[in-house]
Design a protein that fits this description.
Layout: H1 5-19, H2 22-27, H3 62-66, H4 71-90, H5 95-99, H6 102-116, H7 121-142, H8 146-169, H9 176-192, H10 194-219, H11 227-249
Helix pairs in contact: 1-4, 4-6, 6-11, 7-9, 8-9, 9-10, 9-11, 10-11
């Protein structure tokens, strides 16, 4: 894998520009209506708190999150770094068509999930549609074969279907928002490759367990969301997936 610094520079600048609109994207997410089934992101083991803690506060409004000081530049930096890392390893490849649109959306979802422990369907559903269209565009633009589409579908089944099974077996330990997010990530990572998909899944689980466990000890509560760890794991899968599997299995 040869690094592509020129591509990284271009995609990084594009990521910075797109990241600046993350507060606007968050502000446009409608609040859950009364009685609307908005599944919480339960994270890791949040059903067994180390202490009861203060009473649960009302959900922070999306508009209030979007108006937080410094969010625009922080999101721009996060999007820029993520987009640059993707461009560095992919170069001018059709994979960019699939991956780059998910960068600002992923940052927005991470921010929302971290603040509210919710992964809004109103944001994930369009991400599904955009990813599907992007896969089709990348398929025709790259001259890929049908096997790439099959791998994409299997990636969706492995990540999204696997998380659905976990949710079905242990619904108190995993939010359905995580299941929806896993489906989107499974599509995108499945298109990119098996190494990226496998490493992304395991990276998300390990980060959720290790960093989330450390956070539980520091905060004395087990109420952290799992979505941000899934998204960070997806980025690590794209950047390090093939090198990691090459190092392990040659």
């Amino acid at each position: 894998m040869t690094p592509e610094p020129v591509t990284a520079l271009v995609t990084g600048l594009a990521g910075v520009a797109a990241g600046g609109f993350v507060p606007t994207l968050i502000a446009r997410v409608p609040e859950p209506e009364l009685g609307e089934p908005e599944e919480p992101d339960k994270g890791e083991d949040d059903t067994t708190p180390l202490d009861e803690g203060p009473p649960e506060e009302p959900k922070e409004a999306y508009a209030a999150i979007a108006a937080r000081p410094g969010l625009a530049w922080q999101a721009a930096v996060a999007s820029g770094v993520a987009a640059a890392a993707i461009g560095l390893v992919t170069g001018w490849d059709a994979d960019l068509v699939v991956l780059l649109p998910l960068v600002p959306v992923g940052v927005a979802l991470a921010v929302i999930d971290w603040r509210t422990r919710l992964l809004p369907t109103r944001l994930i559903a369009p991400a599904y549609a955009v990813t599907l269209v992007a896969v089709v565009v990348a398929f025709f633009a790259s001259g890929a074969d049908v096997g790439d589409l099959e791998r994409t579908g299997l990636g969706w089944l492995a990540y999204g279907g696997g998380f659905f099974l976990l949710w079905f077996i242990y619904p108190s330990g995993l939010g359905y928002g995580d299941v929806r997010l896993a489906g989107v990530l499974g599509l995108a990572l499945g298109w990119v490759g098996w190494a990226e998909l496998v490493v992304a899944i395991w990276a998300g689980v390990l980060l959720g367990g290790l960093l989330g466990g450390l956070l539980s000890v520091v905060r004395r509560r087990r109420d952290y969301p799992f979505g941000p760890f899934m998204l960070l794991g997806a980025l690590l899968g794209v950047v390090l997936g093939q090198p990691v599997l090459d190092a392990l299995y040659g």
